[in-house]
Specification:
Strand order of the largest sheet: 4-3-2-5-6-7-18-19
Largest sheet: 8 strands, mixed
Length: 595
């Protein structure tokens, strides 16, 4: 009782003082803030930063912009705001155009009110389109969250500034901020625009998108050119590709090539090197030379394609003209163009805002500016998620105090979207500080190591020479020729087994088969034995045949092996010197022949 009395007395004194100064404040908003401060003081606790959710009312008005069917909150997001404590007011019939009933909002916990009551009692107003001047005046000094486009709406900002209002622009989200993707309404709505652009084009186009081969004849696939491969462009590429079209895409930013090709599109490049990547993921304005090269490319493409969809935008500037009237004149009759930049002046010279026209040569030009509103339920659901989650993050994200709305300049998302704070111009947000310069360590010049590729082969040849000498020496002291012959066979079988079988990796099984085939030619030894000891003409003939055929088998096997191994060689492989093994082999054979 004491706290309530103090609060009312303080309110009366403060209201009188403010009236003397000629200032106007929302009485219910002031009462809640003052009551909250008194409660914290009475409890002797440190008051968290910001204002408690249960002391704030969020208002969702009906959109009045021509052709606009979206709404800033759905029954699902109303429930999302009500659970932590926000009071929610919905203008009657605000969601009907997006197929959301008044009863559904009431069931979610919102209160249905008329327009005047909503603007009068709302502490925070959430909209889709920028407010009209009359709506801004009704806002007074409270908070607005909506698309604002501050660079284009100077008069609107001036009016908000004069009223000491606070404003957040949903179009100013830092798009390179990972966490900001949750609140990125530009992307969520552009995705819908790109999809809908293809649907509108297919509605006006007189053929299948996918090619067909039927008994009645062949229908070639539709060729679609997408100019600008941001979110809307990529959505258009994906949709057209899914419908069976052949898709080509063009953008000033070469970094988007990989994304286009990942969706099955063909990325077109001009014959002039210039990177059009700008800040925040947008494109920058290009040079005259680049535009001349691009015009040549696009002119040729317009002669070939059936549908052209353009999405090129530069923040704060009119849309660049990419497709001229001369290019349109080269398109085939029945072709279609869809200009997603129509609201900003258009990328196509024949575009008429919010209209569909047909040129003299039969090209249908679509200039709709309400493409997201043509899918009002989906676009409203996505947008309301963006804006509601942003509102719920303002404060708790950095202060870690749940249930309190607070404008924290240390929050990159909040600071980036903050246009006005109590009448103070805060746009544009300051750029983040550049990363600290890294001191490059002076790298010591390391002399390349000289590798002697010949050395291991020389060492192997020496080992073979030692082994051959040992065999010859052992043969010299052998008790009889039969023992020498058996020992030689035994030694050769061991050498062959170790060097050929154990030394070959599993990946070389096919070459190993060729080597094994060559080794099987050791039957030549039997043929040579017959030639040396045979007393029969028939045995001699068979020995000669065995020796000849085995020799062919040996030589052919090793030739095939060499060719197969060459298939696995790389240009960077070190040179080989296997011919050095022939020296000890020739020496051993010569010594054997002499002995």
């Amino acid at each position: 009782m004491i706290r309530l009395t103090l609060s009312r007395s303080a309110q009366a004194m403060t209201s009188f003082s403010l009236q003397q100064r000629g200032l106007q404040f929302s009485s219910h908003y002031w009462r809640r803030s003052l009551s909250s401060s008194s409660s914290a003081a009475a409890a002797g606790e440190t008051k968290p930063k910001g204002i408690e959710y249960n002391k704030l009312t969020v208002g969702i008005p009906k959109e009045t912009y021509p052709l606009e069917k979206r709404v800033a909150a759905t029954p699902q997001t109303v429930d999302l705001l009500r659970k932590p404590g926000f009071h929610v007011l919905i203008e009657k019939d605000a969601g009907l155009a997006a197929h959301f009933k008044n009863e559904d909002y009431e069931a979610a916990g919102a209160k249905l009110v008329d327009k005047d009551e909503l603007w009068k009692k709302s502490d925070i107003v959430m909209k889709v389109r920028p407010p009209t001047m009359d709506e801004v005046k009704s806002l007074e000094d409270r908070t607005l969250v909506s698309f604002l486009w501050p660079a284009q709406n100077k008069d609107l900002l001036a009016q908000l500034e004069s009223q000491k209002a606070t404003a957040f622009a949903m179009d100013c989200i830092p798009r390179t901020l990972s966490r900001g993707q949750t609140y990125d309404a530009l992307s969520s709505q552009a995705n819908i625009s790109g999809y809908r652009a293809v649907i509108e084009a297919s509605n006006q186009y007189g053929r299948f998108f996918a090619g067909q081969m039927t008994a009645a004849g062949k229908v070639p696939p539709t060729k679609v050119l997408v100019v600008g491969t941001g979110v809307a462009g990529l959505a258009a590429i994906q949709t057209a590709k899914n419908m069976g079209a052949v898709v080509r895409a063009f953008d000033v930013r070469p970094v988007t090539k990989e994304q286009v090709e990942a969706m099955g599109g063909q990325f077109l490049e001009v014959d002039y090197k210039e990177d059009g990547s700008g800040a925040g993921g947008y494109a920058k304005e290009m040079s005259k030379e680049w535009h001349a090269a691009a015009a040549k490319l696009l002119s040729k493409q317009c002669e070939e394609v059936d549908i052209v969809i353009t999405t090129a935008l530069i923040p704060g500037r009119p849309a660049p003209k990419m497709i001229t009237k001369d290019m349109i004149a080269k398109m085939k009759p029945g072709s279609v163009t869809v200009d997603l930049a129509a609201e900003a002046g258009g990328n196509i010279e024949t575009t008429v805002k919010d209209q569909v026209i047909v040129t003299d040569n039969g090209v249908t030009c679509i200039g709709y500016t309400d493409l997201p509103s043509r899918l009002p339920t989906t676009s409203s659901s996505l947008y309301s998620n963006n804006i509601s989650k942003f509102l719920l993050s303002a404060g708790p994200q950095t202060t870690k105090e749940k249930g309190y709305f607070y404008i924290d300049h240390d929050d990159d998302a909040v600071r980036g979207m903050l246009v006005l704070e109590k009448g103070k111009m805060m746009w544009p947000a300051p750029l983040p500080p550049p990363p600290p310069a890294t001191v490059k360590d002076e790298k010591k010049v390391v002399e390349p190591e000289v590798i002697d590729y010949r050395a291991p082969y020389v060492q192997g040849a020496k080992t073979a020479a030692y082994f051959a000498s040992s065999v010859l020496a052992f043969g010299a002291v052998a008790p009889n020729p039969a023992f020498s012959s058996m020992f030689t066979t035994f030694a050769l079988s061991n050498v062959i087994g170790v060097q050929v079988v154990l030394g070959v990796s599993h990946a070389l099984h096919s070459p190993l088969m060729a080597v094994t085939n060559a080794i099987s030619g050791t039957t030549a030894l039997g043929g040579m034995h017959l030639l040396a000891h045979s007393q029969s003409a028939a045995a001699t003939a068979l020995g000669a045949a065995a020796t000849t055929l085995s020799t062919v088998n040996i030589v052919g096997g090793f030739i095939v092996t060499t060719k197969m191994l060459d298939m696995f060689k790389r240009p960077t492989d070190p040179p080989e010197y296997y011919h050095l093994y022939g020296i000890p082999a020739a020496g051993a054979i010569g010594a054997y022949g002499v002995g």
